[in-house]
Amino acid sequence: MTPDDPQAEIARLSAEIEHHNRLYYDQAEPEISEAEYDALYRRLEALEAEYPLFANPNSPTRRVGGTPSEGFEQIRHPVPMLSIDDLFEIPEEELDKIEAKTGTRPPKEQELVDFYRRLQRGLGVEEIPVTIEPKIDGVAVSLVYRGGKLEYAATRGDGTTGDVITANVRTIRSIPMTLPAVEGVPATLEVRGEIFMPGEGFAKMNEERDEAGLPTFANPRNATAGTLKLLDPREVAARPLDFIAHGLGLVEGGEIGSITDFHALLDRVGIRKNEPLTIARNLGEVLDAVRRLDVERHDLPYGTDGAVIKVIDRDAQQQLGYTSRAPRWAAAYKYPPEQKETELLAITVQVGRTGKLTPVAELAPVLVSGTTVRRATLHNESFIQEKGIAIGDVVLIQKAGEIIPEVIKVTAKRGPEVPFSMHAHLGGGCPVCSGPIERRETVSGSKAEARTIVTHFCVSFECPAQVASRMRQFVSRKALDIEGIGSTVAEKLVERGLIRSPLDLFAISEDTLATLNLGTEEAPRIFGEKNAAKIVQARERAAKEMPLARWLFAMGISQVGESAARELARLHRNFGELATSPLLAELRTLKTGESKEKNALLAPYEIASEVGPIVAASVLDFFQSAAGTAVLARLAEFGIDPQSENYSPKPAEDTGGPGKPLAGKTFVITGTLSAPRDDIAARILASGGKVSGSVSKNTSYLLAGEGGGSKLDKALALGVAVIAEAELEALLAPGSAAEEA
Ligand code: IVH
Fold this sequence. Notes:
Elements lengths: L5 H21 L7 H17 L23 E3 L9 E3 L3 H11 L7 H14 L6 E5 L4 E8 L2 E7 L5 E3 L2 H4 L18 E9 L2 H13 L8 H9 L4 H5 L4 E11 L6 H11 L8 E3 L2 H14 L9 E6 L2 H7 L9 E5 L4 E13 L4 E13 L2 E7 L3 H7 L6 E7 L3 E9 L9 H5 L10 E8 L6 E8 L5 H12 L11 H9 L14 H5 L14 H17 L2 H7 L7 H10 L3 H5 L2 H7 L24 H12 L1 H13 L27 E5 L6 H10 L3 E3 L8 E4 L5 H9 L2 E3 L1 H8 L9
Parallel strand pairs: 2-11, 19-20, 19-21, 21-22
Antiparallel strand pairs: 1-6, 3-9, 3-10, 4-5, 4-7, 7-8, 10-11, 12-13, 12-15, 13-14, 13-18, 15-16, 17-18
């Protein structure tokens, strides 16, 4: 079925789908069934595929899976995105003290009263209409519409410049790409609001991540921020993000005289505004509204710990003005988190992906801020010891950020005098595999307030709680790149007892792999000879060709990510050198934050910030542990001895030499290039160069592709050499030294 006018048909379908999106997501009143919606959607997709010229980048089909973007460009906000001043509720004990001293007891909302008085003085009138609405605990975003179309979406950033996240925002269905052509839409309209993850969606996503062996997010806000930073919008589309508008930025070619007018406009264009919204005309009504919201807020789909109070009239707002960081016409009243007492029934220990043992409080169920709390993390042994927690005690709990329950303190000592001890509880063995446990001390906090934190780890390389996830890291693209082993295969191998540690992958026979059943007894799904052969080939390549940095990252040693692994491989030739490294031994004796450059032994090595005392300690501990020794022994048995391919421990004296034409040069990459940035960065690294994320005076070259934005401006301002891809190729060419360019 080919339409006469495909362009018009694409536009018509887009508008129709937008209409149904608004009905479904904003008004919760769908007019058509999901099947009918899907049919419209698929028809639009098909037409766009057939006539790509007419496909609009803001098409509703782009919101669930657009094309991956490359990093984020930055943009200057047309109107700064300011902060907001907090007003705190005064705790009872504080009020008692004031009363004892002065004879009068102020209301707990005294700071709010003072704020309203400031408004009255500033405007010279008694009654000032203000709105009261929940403070949404999400990530602030600016949506700029020009001519009714979303031009870009940006994060708050530092308030002056933010990241352009349009591709990710397109995946959020409650954000319209095109505003309906209704009356009073300004030519340029900047809508500000909050992207958040609804509590239910957050819980479900975390559960799924946990099951898949992925790290979970601490709270919905972190999950939202983390999601918006993803580079692939298809991944973002799979996360349950939502949006609510709460503010106005730039307005051009139109008039919006008050918050009330703004809200009416939001309703007309179908953007969800923040609710419940109360208008208060005087101080008494403000106090009433704030108290009412404290009750109502527990039923909202997002976390909130406060009420935002804003002067309604835009002229009055201008008259009150701004401080350098916040408007004088708005404030956030912060509610104290609800706290409840309950009994600590037991403490269980969970084994995480990295082997970290986390003590968890099993509580007598208690209702806090609207949900029943049964468990709360106790973080680590230091947390338990500092608070003197023992099983049987009555503890005070609250929900941090109104979502994650936490234990604040013991309020009645009912359990044993001696606090809970991990060692005594576990008898020295991992609760999952009974394997050896290691006690680790890390120092955290600033130099002045350094705290030692004791955590426990299961260090058995073969603990089933960890093997499947370790396997996934081991074979991943950035580690040994053993294609064909996805998470299902990894899990089955562990489940069927064929693999107890990632290194077993090198011992398993091709036949065993070929006959592996990925399905069930009833519905078998056999891995097959072809797939098995592929894995055998990939593992041979890994054994012979993969450099030390990849192997090191593959090991999944705590604290050793990709860049730390690369830096460790620059300083060492092989595992043997790493295990007995005098450099790391010296490094681990430094206090966090202490300068490596001041240390006589370390100074010449110019060790990058990725490798500090914590990483050094973790690496040495690993190779000295039973697990680490076993790994080295097995590698020797298999005849695997990965070598560093970027070994150059003294870059200060390194003049490049054959194969390292970019030694000593730092690159920043921006804009769209002919290959993914990761690939280009890998080539630069392989040629001895460094790649950094931001332009500074130490940058040697800015490699600029099409559409390089603020990085380009900065490079030009700092006089950093800007080169195109062709020039990079010249620098990379054999025989060229970067200096000659
Ligand atoms: S109004 C400049 N209203 O809080 C004052 N902000 O604003 C205008 N926030 O990160 C902001 N909920 O994104 C306003 N109902 C609400 C809000 C809200 C959350 C965030 C906002 C920003 C911070 C300070």
